[in-house]
Amino acid sequence: MIEAEQLHARILSRLDMTRDMEDEELTELIYEVLQEASQEEYLPLDQKTMLGKELFNAFRKLDLLQEFLEDEQITEIMINGTQNIFIEKAGRIIQSDKRFLSRDKLEDVIQQIVAGSNRLVNEASPIADARLADGSRVNVVLPPVALNGPIVTIRKFAKEAITMKKLMEWQSINSEVSGFLALLVAAGYNIFISGGTGSGKTTFLNALSQYIPKNERIITIEDNAELQIQNVKNLVRLEARNANVEGTGEVTIRDLIKSALRMRPDRIIVGEVRSAEAIDMLQALNTGHDGSLSTGHANSPKDMLSRLETMVLMGMDLPLPAIQRQIASGLDIIVHLGRLRDKTRKVLEVTEVLGYWEEEIHLQTLYCFEEAYKEAVNVTEDEEKREIRMERKVSGDWKKIAELCHREKLMAAGYHI
């Protein structure tokens, strides 16, 4: 049976390396080689079409990754070396039967990806974050750090920006909570979005941004540009930069936040707070930039506060009470997201930061998601893997727990609830 790598080698031997070949010319060469191969061994039309697409992607695009990237149902691609490729589809992780031809080919694809984001990755600097042209987030880890070969993880984002209306259709939030948050964003409340990995923090931040008044000047700051702020004309997008080969030229999130404060922003949006930049973000929130937004990893709103305290201490040696006062003064609302056992993503809690007294930050839950505990159970048996799967659909609704305490910003903006 003729293998794709044999066809790849034949095409490579006929390429004219002295000039750039147009896509049409390459396509003609691929199908010329496929026609010759089909004379040696019968190739069904569907197989010939599939091979033609794979070979074109191998020469012009991201090899077999291209097929995964074009499949809108796939949300995550995980490459563990050349032989083990996993994808997440409809919330379930499955192993693909696709394989890279060689480690060299996989490394070529990696270099193509990171070069597109002006990043560098090699044995001396084996870890890199990058993004694809469609905004998909890419993490790369190379040997010797990765023991089982080059590791690539790609988080895909929807081609069209996800709106709050779409989130309501997916039952990630209801109209009451959505309308409440829309008022808070428009009135200039500082909102922090927390949640675990894959809970949809960036997607939710994008959706919230649709409620920002269109006449404001917005500055976004990110490690890798992923935000899709909607319908804001006066928008400045800033992206951090790693150091070059000589170890110079690094531009950190902290540097960008400090610079943003001199750019006359109405609001500052920090894509994700991970480290010492938390102190600069809090200073921005406490210096008149109302309506700013950010995200961070945490298991609950209270845990998010503890993580922020730790991150501030990474950047500046301050007494804990001083840090807590800064957090309590800067943050107004924490929206906590979660990914439930049925793989759905939901707003689990909307919490108000009441203030700092008695040596702690006090919180008040405004809305929370409560399960109905009436789960539809679908039991399926996978004969090949000899597994029994129980698919439980989580149902429930959002319950209002308390009224908003601090309404000064709402009243100043002319809103009433």
UniProtKB/TrEMBL annotation:
- List the source organism: Dorea longicatena
User: PANTHER family of this UniProt entry?
Assistant: TWITCHING MOTILITY PROTEIN PILT (PTHR30486), TYPE II_IV SECRETION SYSTEM ATPASE (PTHR30486:SF15)
- Signal sequence: where? none
Per the record, the domain of life is Bacteria
Please give one Gene Ontology molecular function term for this protein: ATP hydrolysis activity
Checking InterPro entries in the record gives: AAA+_ATPase, P-loop_NTPase, T2SS/T4SS_dom, T4SS_GSP_E_ATPase
Name under which the protein is recorded: CpaF family protein
Q: Identify the SMART domains for this entry.
A: AAA (SM00382)
Q: Can you tell me which family this protein belongs to?
A: Belongs to the GSP E family.
Residue ranges annotated for the AAA+ ATPase domain, each copy included: 187-341
Note the Gene3D superfamilies from the entry.
3.30.450.380, P-loop containing nucleotide triphosphate hydrolases
